[in-house]
Amino acid sequence: MEGSNTISMILMQDDLDKLAVYCNPKNKTWVFSAVCSHLGRSVGWNNAEKSWDCPCHGSRFDCYGKMISR
User: Fold this and answer.
1) Which one-letter DSSP state was computed for residue 2?
2) Which CATH superfamily is domain 8-69 in?
3) How far apart are CA 29 and CA 70, in angstroms?
């Protein structure tokens, strides 16, 4: 995931773990669980808000995985 002025994100699975991967414009990468802490659904990237959102009940997490709304 490279790019000088881009933000990259991806959902992936490593063995049994679902992972969310975020790479900022300076190519620093964060990897964290893609499983929502509320009901266990996988989050998806919301490009408009630059957040990871749970499709089940609307919880939102910032690009680093920190919860920003329930």
Assistant:
1) -
2) Rieske [2Fe-2S] iron-sulphur domain (2.102.10.10)
3) 25
Residues 6+ apart with CB under 8 A from 70: 38, 58, 59
Which amino acid, residue 36? C
Look at the pTM and tell me if it is higher than 0.85.
no
Rg of the chain in Å (alpha carbons):
12
Query: What would you measure as the largest C-alpha separation in the chain, in angstroms?
Result: 36
Q: pLDDT per residue over 44-56, tens digit each?
A: 999 899 899 999 8
Nearest to 10 by CA among 42, 41, 36, 39: 42
DSSP 52: E
Strand, helix or coil for residue 35? strand
The residue type at 21:
V
